[in-house]
Task: structure prediction
Amino acid sequence: MKTAICYYSRHHGNTRKVLEAMAGEGEVDLIDVTTRQTVRLEEYDCIGFASGIYFGKFQTSVLQFAQQYLPERKNVFFVSTYGMLSPGYTKTIKQIAEEKHCLVLGEFGCKGFDTYGPFKLVGGIAKGHPDAQDLEKARMFYQEIQAQ
Ligand SMILES: Cc1cc2nc3c(=O)[nH]c(=O)nc-3n(C[C@H](O)[C@H](O)[C@H](O)COP(=O)(O)O)c2cc1C
Result:
C-alpha cells in the first residue's frame, strides 16, 4: 500500500517525529505542504493529513492543501499533536474529506511539546512529548491503517 502523508510541523517538529515513526512501518511519502508546490495524490492508495494543532485546528496550509489536492473518494486518515487535548481539533479537515466523499480510516493524536505564548513562561507544557510510548502507539496506528 502506497501512502502519502501531507503535513505541517513547525513549532518543535513534534508532528514530524510521529510521522517518521509511522513511515518506518511501510511505503510512506512524507510531503511537507509548505515546500511542495504541486503533488499527484491520485497515485496513492491512502492519504494522511497531519499537523500540530494551531488555534484549535490543523494549520491553515494543510487545510488549503487538502482542499486543493485531495482527490475524490480516497481513503484518508488524520494525525495531530497538541499541547492539550480538546474536542474538535480534526473537525475542519474531516469536513473537507467528507465533502470529497473520502472514507476516513482513523485518527491518531498525541501530546507535543508546546511553548506557545504564556506556556513559555513555565517552560512549556507536554514536555518530552512525543515520547517513546507515543511513537509506539503511532506505529501501531499506522499498522492498523495498513491492515484495513
Ligand atoms: C501558534 C500556536 C498555536 C497553538 N494552538 C494550540 C491549540 O489551540 N491547542 C493545543 O492543544 N495546542 C496548541 N499549540 C501547541 C501545538 O499544537 C503543539 O506544540 C504541537 O505539537 C506542535 O506541532 P509541531 O511541532 O509539529 O508544529 C499551539 C502552538 C502554537 C505555536
